[in-house]
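tool=predict chain=A
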Amino acid sequence: MVLTAATLWAVNGVVSKVIIDSGDVDAKRLTEVRTTGAFVLLFLVLVASRPELLRVRRDELPVLLTFGLLGLAFVQWFYFEAISRLDIGVALLIQYVAPVLVALWARFAYDEPVRRRIWAALGLSILGIALLVELWNGLTLDGLGVAAALGSATTFAVYVLSAERAVTRRDPVSLVCYGFLLAALFWAVLQPWTSFPFGRLDESVSLLGRLADVSLPVWLLMTWMIVLGTIVPFALLAASLRHIAASRAAITAMFEPVAATVLAYAWLGESLTAYQLLGALVVLTAILLAQTAR
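tool=predict ok
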């Protein structure tokens, strides 16, 4: 489930970057489209198939609010901002410091024992990020992009931890549905739909890179993003937490930056410098090390 979700997210990253780079829709609007479209489709499916799953108990509200707002709403916004300013591979590798954050939360919030290698992993992850952004060159990467990627790492950790708690008493599909509802409401207040550039949805945009000669309408790319780039992978990850722990899910999801880097190279022609590749290896090593100390 997690490997499938990670692969779909990787493809979605490239599709989303194509939409953002076209200039028709910015990162915030794309987040709003993604969350609202996902909620509407999931809600219709549940109403038609299993409406009883939509019942909500009062004691579920705190977890649902955390999951929907801090998890789903912000993780996507930060992610879109990051990939609009950075190469996808760099953005994802910074985002996947999240498993280290999950382990730290387990130690200090849940008071679970954490082995020494966790602290070594944290130090390695910081070193890896320093190599990724090439700090000795005065931060050659976009500073806001790096900050957004770190924000995505934090909110992704919140998503995994809150989902792990929520799926013990709620169906994963209805959990994701309510999460997207809260995220959609948040963005509707922040930027009302009355100002949405609906006229641009019929415009065709180039797929960029090696597919620059191919053009598709914005609405079709958004449909892919909502269904196969959002609903299916988020539901798969939430469902997987009934079978494996949050730390296992987080490390398995590390397949996403690997897939995304390959896709970005094959599709967009993106590349990393030697130092950034070394930084990527250090970050990956840090996260793998952290997950052996569960």
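DSSP finds twelve helices and two strands in the chain. The beta strands are 204-206, 215-217.
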